[in-house]
Design goal:
By secondary structure, the protein is an alpha/beta fold. The chain is built from 13 helices and twelve strands. Strands 2-8-7-6-5-3-4 form a seven-stranded mixed beta sheet, sandwiched between helices. It has a three-stranded antiparallel beta sheet with strand order 9-12-11. Helix 6 links the parallel strand 3 and strand 4. Helix 3 packs antiparallel against helix 10, helix 4 runs parallel beside helix 10 and helix 5 packs parallel to helix 6.
Length: 382
């Protein structure tokens, strides 16, 4: 039988980050020792108190359906956290989702019609483009690479890109793949453009808790942004809960009521006992988060020094756990060679809209990071 596939599916490619990770897994299955720096996943275990809360919830019988938008206690805890961030949030303006990616997908599907323009800040996380195309939208991209991946010096370029025809702007700070944390002046520039052109803004804050010496500002807390910002966050990165699949979105009630339709007809609800574990995470893991953040900062600084020793200038971000390594050759060819020859897995920058770079995740031990640099040097990739 020959299937007639939907055009929306044929418009997108598989996730580049997962494709590299799958390649690394294949090599490892063949007995190859791969230093996998391709995956955006903390290498720490989920905090024990969170694991125990999940077990306790299962033992207590929390294994059935929950209210579609999430259990009330978790939605209220999320709203309280958002209020601490300066966002005027109520629990009925929150949808709890199976992962932050699902929260983003529901937002794109709720807001974007065929032909609607979405503006991305490159380099941009790979799934923003796919989600735009799945919804039938068109892309307009602003390149931050000439500005060391910072948004503030690129505001003139963003001004040229945004118009009354723009439906949605996606802002990710701290950024995947660069680690950049955008300044308040940059976010205020976003606010001014969004208000002027009546644009909705997604503020993807999944790395909010992983910053080094700076306090990120939530876009929705700025004056004029409360009624036009969709705040996306989740539990995967800050609490090392990637496999638990738990995230959320906050938006004005009118948008929540529409997104909730999609949510109820697709995933029904996030997993019951996982939501109880998430409640524990959001309330009682400050010490574990600080420990992980401190370790990431030490790794970032160590990697920066190692690259400098080999005369490689890498822009260093103030958040997340990524670096964009400049490469001389075609970035896809470079990454393919690095994993085949040096057995070091990285992700081509072109997957994020920024050719000429390779994204490195430093969510790995210092020992493995040093090993990766040594292998890249040995095989002529640095």
């Amino acid at each position: 039988m020959s299937f007639d596939f939907a055009a929306r599916v044929e418009r997108v490619e598989p996730s580049a980050t997962l494709a590299i990770s799958n390649k690394a897994s294949e090599l490892e299955a063949d007995g190859v020792d791969v230093v996998d720096l391709s995956v955006g996943e903390p290498d720490f275990p989920t905090p024990e108190n969170v694991v125990e809360a999940g077990k306790d919830a299962m033992d207590a019988g929390h294994t059935g359906y929950t209210p579609s938008n999430g259990i009330p206690a978790l939605r209220e805890a999320i709203a309280a956290k958002l209020r601490d961030d300066g966002i005027d949030a109520a629990s009925d303006e929150v949808i709890v989702t199976p992962g932050g990616k699902q929260a983003l997908f529901e937002t794109f599907q709720t807001l974007i019609d065929d032909g609607d323009e979405v503006v991305l800040l490159d380099p941009a996380w790979v799934s923003y483009e796919a989600m735009t195309k799945l919804a039938g939208g068109s892309l307009n991209r602003v390149d931050l690479a000439p500005y060391d991946f910072q948004l503030e010096p690129a505001l003139d370029d963003l001004t040229e890109a945004i118009s009354d025809d723009t439906e949605l702007l996606v802002v990710n700070s701290p950024s995947n793949p660069t680690g950049a944390v955008y300044s308040d002046a940059a976010l205020e520039g976003v606010r001014d453009l969004a208000v002027e052109h009546d644009v909705t803004v997604i503020s993807d804050e999944i790395y909010q808790e992983i910053t080094y010496g700076v306090e990120p500002t939530s876009l929705g807390s700025l004056e004029g942004m409360s009624d036009r910002t969709v705040t996306i966050n989740g539990f995967s990165k800050a609490y090392s809960m990637t496999g638990w699949r738990l995230g959320y979105l906050h938006a004005p009630e009118s948008l929540i009521s529409q997104a909730a339709k999609l949510h109820s007809h697709s995933v029904s609800c996030a997993v019951n006992f996982v939501q109880h574990a998430g409640l524990e995470a959001i309330q009682n893991t400050d010490e574990a988060v600080t420990e992980m953040r401190d370790a990431f900062r030490e790794r970032r600084d160590m990697l920066s020094e190692l690259f400098a020793e080999h005369d490689v200038d890498v822009p260093v971000g103030d958040g997340a756990f990524y670096m964009m390594l400049p490469v001389d050759d075609d970035d896809q060819e470079w990454c393919a060679g690095a994993i085949e020859d040096a057995h070091v897995a990285t992700v081509p920058g072109s997957a994020f809209g920024s050719p000429g770079y390779a994204r490195i995740s430093y969510a790995a031990s210092e020992e493995r990071l040093r090993e990766a640099v040594d292998r890249l040097v040995e095989h002529g990739y640095l």
